[in-house]
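ok trying again, last paste got cut off:
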Amino acid sequence: MIQPDPVGVDDRRLNKEYVAIVNDGVERVDLSGWVIRDGSLDWLRLPAGTGVDPAAVLTIRSGSGRNTASTVYWSRRSPVWANFTTAAGTRTRFGFIGDGAYLIDPVGNVRASKVYPCLGSCPDPARDSLVISKVDYDPPGDERGKPNSEHIRIKNRGATTLSLFGYEIRAGGFGYEFGQYDTLAPGADLTIRLGVGRSTTAIRHLGLSRASLANSGDRVLLRSFDGARLDCRAWGKKRCPGGY
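nice, full thing came through this time. structure:
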C-alpha cells in the first residue's frame, strides 16, 4: 500500500507520504536488512529488529522521526513517491506519471511490489460496492460557522465486509484517509462530518473550523491511494475528474 499524494504540499508533509507493508500470514516476518526502494532506485535498508507481526502493518514514512515497532522513518528531505495522474492530456514522453515500491530481501529477491497507477485490467475489491451515498453541502441556514452541518456519507452496498485501508475522500482542498483497521459491513453507512467531535465506528470528524464545501460548485471524490476512482459527486460548475 502506498500513499504517494497526501493532501497539501508534499514537501511540507513528508510523513504523510508512506508505504505500508501488511503481513497477511500467520507468522512474524523479520525484515532486518531488507530494502524498500522506489521506481527510480532510491532505497532504504530497514534497520535490524524491523519486522511485522501477523495481521499487522509496518509503515515506512518518508520524513524524519523516531523509529518504533510499527513505523520506520526514511529521513528524506524531499518526497519519495511520485504523484500520479491518469487524466486525459497528461501524458509525457515517459508515459503516465506514477511510481512503484519494491520490497527486496537481503539476497536480492523482490518479495513484494506495488506499482501505480494501473492502466490495464485493474480489479478493485471495493469497486461497485463502496459508494458516496450522500453529500450535504448546503444544509439549512448559514453553515459557515457550523462545519458539522456539512457531511459526506459513504455506503457499502456489496455483500461482504470491506477493508477501507487504502481509500480516501478528497474534496474542496481537504481530505480524509481511512485507517489501517477501518472496515464497513455490508449495507452499512459511515458519515464524515467536517467539524470537531468524537469519532465512532459510524461517524468520523475532520476537525475543520469552518464549512468547506462550496455551495456554488465543488466535488467529492472517493478513490484509492493509487488513483482508482470508486465514486464522485460534483455540483455547480465543478466536474468529476477523468482517469480510471
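cool. The two ends are 18 Å apart (CA to CA). The chain has two domains: 2-116, 130-236.
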